[in-house]
Write a structure and sequence with these properties.
The chain is α/β, with parallel strands linked by helices. It folds into two domains: 148 residues, Aspartate Aminotransferase, domain 1; 242 residues, Aspartate Aminotransferase, domain 2 (3-Layer(aba) Sandwich). It contains 14 helices and 17 strands. Strands 4-12-11-10-7-5-6 form a seven-stranded mixed β-sheet, with helices on both faces. The protein has a four-stranded mixed β-sheet with strand order 1-2-3-15. It has a four-stranded antiparallel β-sheet with strand order 13-14-17-16, with helices on one face. A hairpin with a 3-residue loop joins β16 and β17. α12 runs parallel beside α14. It is globular. The two termini are 36 Å apart. 47% of the residues are buried.
C-alpha cells in the first residue's frame, strides 16, 4: 500500500502508524472513506476545518468556478474574491480592517507583529511584551510557538522569541501580575482548543477588556479554532459582548481550503504601513471564493441556532455518561460543537483507537481529553450514531 512508503519519503512529525491510521481517499458530508471503501463517521472534521462537512457542493462549485477564471496573482493586484470576502467579514463582525494569510499561525503572527508595531506608532518603543495564557496554543512558527503557553510544544526550540509572559487562564489577578512597563497587548483564546477545551468565563474576558483599556493595551482574541460558528456564534467572543482590538480566524474559514485572516479596528490598523507585512498566497482568489460561501452559510442566524441546539444536545448526552461512569469520566467541557471529555485515567489514546475500529473518528489531546469537532451541519442521526459508538467504547473501558 502507498501509505507504507510515507516513512521513506516524509519527515516524521505526525506519528502516523500504517497498521492503525486510515488512508483516506474520499469525503462527503460527515463521512470519509478509506482505500478499502470503508466509511468512517468523522468527528475530527479536519481539526475544526470542515465546518460544512467534506466536499460541500456550494464550496466546491465556487472554488472550481474561480479555478477556471483566475488561480493566483499575488497581492500586487486587486482581485474580486479578496475584496468581497474582506467586505463580508467587516460587515458581519466588529472589525474594520482585514489582512489575509494562509493559516491560523500566520494570522496570529500577523496579530503579534501588528500589536508591536502599533505600540511604536504611539511612540512606545519599549512596549513589546504580550501576555498570553498558560495551556494556550497559538501556532508553530517561532513567534506563535513562543506565544503558546505549553512547555511541551516549545521543548527543543530555544532560544525562543523574547517578549512574552504567561498567566493562568481565567485568572484576571494572574494576568495583572504579569503586567510590566513593556506590555503592549494581551492575547487569549475565548475557548482553548489544543489546551484541553477550556472555556473562558465572561467575568475573565470582561476583566481583560477593562484591564487593557486602563493600561492602554491591545486585546487580541485567537479565534482560529473556536471561531466561524463553532460555538454557536460566528465568533466566540460574541457570546460575551466583549470586543477585541484584534482577532484571528482560519481553519473553518475556507471550508477545507487554506486561508487565515487577522481582523482589527480602524485605529489599530494604522499600525501597519505598506511593506510592514505581507503574504504571497494570502487572500488567494480560490480560497477567498470558497470562504465567501462558507461565511454566507455559517453566518446565518438559523444555522448558528442549530449549531447551539446540536451542541447542547451532544454535551448533555456526554454529561449523562459522566453520571454513569464517574470513575472513568472526570468532566465534559466546551461550547457548541467544540467539546471535550476529560478522563480520570490515561486511556484517551486507547479509546480513540477503539472508536476508530468501530468507524468513528475522534481526537485525543494528550492522554486524557477526547475532543469532538463534527461538521457544524452534522445531522442529528449522525450525532446519535457517534454517541452510541462512544458509549459502547467507554463502557468497555470503565
Amino acid at each position: 500500500m502507498l501509505k507504507n512508503e510515507e516513512a521513506q519519503y516524509m519527515i516524521n512529525v505526525y506519528n502516523r502508524q500504517p497498521e492503525l491510521t486510515p488512508f483516506l481517499v474520499k469525503g462527503e458530508g460527515s463521512y470519509v472513506w478509506d482505500e478499502e471503501g470503508t466509511a468512517h463517521l468523522d468527528f475530527v472534521g479536519g481539526l475544526a476545518v470542515n465546518a460544512l462537512g467534506h466536499s460541500p457542493p456550494d464550496v466546491v462549485k465556487a472554488a472550481c468556478e474561480q479555478l477556471e477564471r483566475l488561480i493566483h496573482t499575488s497581492n500586487l493586484y486587486y482581485t474580486e474574491p479578496q475584496i468581497k470576502l474582506a467586505r463580508s467579514l467587516v460587515q458581519r463582525t466588529s472589525a474594520d480592517r482585514v489582512f489575509f494569510c494562509n493559516s491560523g499561525a500566520e494570522a496570529n503572527e500577523a496579530a503579534i507583529k501588528l500589536a508591536r508595531k502599533y505600540a511604536r506608532t504611539l511612540h512606545r518603543e519599549d512596549r513589546y511584551e504580550i501576555i498570553t495564557a498558560l495551556n494556550s496554543f497559538h501556532g508553530r512558527t517561532m513567534g506563535t510557538l513562543t506565544a503558546t503557553g505549553q512547555e511541551k510544544a516549545q521543548k527543543g526550540f530555544a532560544p525562543l522569541l523574547p517578549g512574552f509572559r504567561y498567566a493562568h487562564f481565567n485568572d484576571l489577578r494572574s494576568f495583572k501580575s504579569q503586567l510590566s512597563a513593556k506590555t503592549c497587548a494581551v492575547m487569549v483564546e475565548p475557548l482553548q482548543g489544543e489546551g484541553g477545551i477550556h472555556l473562558a468565563t465572561g467575568e475573565f474576558l470582561a476583566g481583560l477588556r477593562q484591564l487593557c483599556d486602563e493600561q492602554e493595551l491591545l486585546l487580541i482574541f485567537d479565534e482560529v479554532q473556536c471561531g466561524m460558528g463553532r460555538t454557536g456564534a460566528l465568533f466566540a467572543f460574541e457570546h460575551y459582548g466583549v470586543l477585541p482590538d484584534i482577532f484571528t480566524a482560519a481553519k473553518a474559514l475556507g471550508g477545507g481550503l487554506p486561508i487565515g485572516a487577522m481582523l482589527c479596528t480602524e485605529e489599530v490598523a494604522k499600525g501597519f504601513s505598506p511593506g510592514d507585512h505581507a503574504s504571497t498566497f494570502g487572500g488567494n482568489p480560490v480560497a477567498c471564493a470558497a470562504a465567501q460561501v462558507v461565511l454566507e452559510q455559517v453566518g446565518r442566524e438559523d444555522f448558528l441556532q442549530e449549531v447551539s441546539r446540536k451542541g447542547e444536545h451532544l454535551k448533555g448526552e456526554l454529561s449523562r455518561l459522566t453520571e454513569k461512569l464517574p470513575a472513568l469520566i472526570k468532566e465534559v467541557r466546551g461550547k457548541g460543537l467544540l467539546l471535550g471529555v476529560e478522563l480520570n485515567e490515561d486511556k484517551g489514546k486507547e479509546i480513540q483507537r477503539k472508536c476508530q475500529e468501530k468507524r468513528l473518528l475522534i481526537n485525543c489531546i494528550g492522554e486524557r481529553v477526547l475532543r469532538l469537532m463534527p461538521p457544524l451541519n452534522v445531522k442529528q442521526e449522525e450525532i446519535e450514531k457517534a454517541l452510541a459508538i462512544l458509549t459502547e467504547v467507554l463502557l468497555e473501558n470503565k
